[in-house]
Specification:
The structure is a single chain. By secondary structure, the protein is mainly beta. The protein has one domain: 6 Propeller (Neuraminidase). The chain is built from two helices and 27 strands. The strands form six sheets. Strands 2-3-4-27-26-25 form a six-stranded antiparallel sheet, with no helix packed on it. The chain has a five-stranded mixed sheet with strand order 1-20-19-18-17, with no helix packed on it.
Length: 384
């Protein structure tokens, strides 16, 4: 675990715009100098109203969620032909709520199944839910066989801290994150799903090897508790272990490796402080509560997390990437096992609030910006 201040390395490594590669280059492509040499950031899609999640379909099209409840299929080579996906369920599109993450089933090429999270409205308020559906693209794209697999309870009228990222484990089960819903004590209640990482089977049932599968000590869907608002999650490409990225308050953003049945401390311990400046809980450690692998102070407001597995930039392979909303940057984390040994902060204030980052099958690293005129970008080596 290592503490780092936000502005260390920014000017030295990549906050500077160098130039387009030549006078005739596409103005949407910009070259930046990094510690791995020059990289090119190309705007692939623009004009998106607060995009949140994205997946790459087998044919190279993008499946994108917008927070207001719209799901789009976009050809990044011809982005003006974007199509709206019909039959998306109603969402609670207020505050931080709306249509959130999206993931493809591992057998998508055969079953066309997707999973998505959203803030589920009800007379009692709203809460994070996860659903499955078949994505049908003959004619106008649409969802069929939509099934809500899980919807959190209790729901409240808070518009804060819904989470929520989806990760599919090697056995096909679904990890997904739920924030504390702006009510801190809920994250320490094992009979409340708020502030937790949850794990369910693709049909919504409880896997037999969940740590609380019998429901006697905690909700059976809970994998781990004590998370404030995890908006990044990824599987380690070598170990298959889950890593998460969670917002702190004023400082204390955390990377964790949630293990079955463990408690990650919020709000009993934190490396941040309340927005008022007051102390959080008992300090930075306490018996029985897990320490983060890495944290930021001050907060970068992190969202989106992925390991880079592509070949476009070989020097980055195996690195962990985190998006940041507050300082509008991409954090590159170099690992030695579970230890972060180096951080490079890229593109500070160049592109906007980075909500999601993904290592896609084309070998490049992609990210999207959470703005009223949000965009999707692709990072690769400059041509030539």
């Amino acid at each position: 675990m290592r503490k780092i201040t936000v502005f260390s390395l920014i000017m030295a490594v990549s906050g500077l715009l160098v130039a387009c590669s030549n006078a005739d280059a596409d103005q949407s492509a910009r070259t930046h100098e990094t510690s791995a040499g020059p990289v090119e950031v190309t705007q692939m899609v623009d004009g998106l109203a607060y995009p949140w999640g994205m997946e790459m379909l087998p044919d190279g099209h993008l499946l994108v969620t917008l927070r207001d409840g719209e799901m789009l299929v976009i050809d990044p080579q011809n982005p003006e032909t974007r199509q709206t996906v019909a039959n998306v369920p109603e969402v609670y599109a207020q505050g931080q709520g709306g249509l959130l993450d999206v993931a493809l089933d591992p057998q998508f090429s055969r079953n066309n199944t997707i999973y998505f999270t959203f803030s589920d409205p009800s007379p009692e308020g709203a809460g994070t839910a996860i659903a499955s559906a078949r994505l049908v693209r003959q004619g106008e794209p649409r969802l069929e066989d939509v099934k809500t697999l899980y919807s959190m309870s209790p729901k409240t009228d808070s518009g804060r801290h819904f989470g929520s990222r989806i990760v599919i484990d090697p056995g096909g089960n679904l990890f997904f994150t739920i924030g504390d819903r702006g009510d801190r004590p809920r994250a320490q209640d094992p009979m409340d799903p708020a502030g937790s990482v949850l794990r369910i089977a693709p049909d919504g049932s409880i896997p037999a090897d969940n740590p609380f599968a019998d429901g006697s000590k905690a909700r059976p869907e809970i994998w781990s508790i004590g998370h404030r608002n995890a908006q990044g999650a990824a599987l380690h490409p070598d170990t298959g272990e889950l890593w998460t990225l969670s917002h702190g308050a004023r400082g204390g953003d955390e990377i964790n490796k949630p293990e079955a049945g463990k408690n990650y401390g919020w709000p009993e311990i934190s490396y941040g402080r309340h927005y008022s400046g007051g102390k959080i809980g008992v300090g930075t450690s306490a018996p029985g509560l897990e320490q983060p692998l890495y944290y930021w102070d001050p907060s970068i407001a992190p969202s989106g997390l992925d390991f880079y597995t592509g070949d476009a930039i070989p020097e980055w392979k195996g690195n962990l990437f985190a998006g940041a909303l507050k300082y509008q940057l991409l954090s590159r984390l170099v690992l030695d096992g579970d230890k972060v040994v180096e951080e490079e902060q890229l593109f500070a204030e160049e592109y906007g609030r980075i909500r999601e980052v993904r290592s896609f099958p084309d070998g490049a690293l992609w990210f999207l910006t959470d703005e009223s005129d949000g965009a999707i970008y692709r990072i690769s080596r400059p041509a030539g």
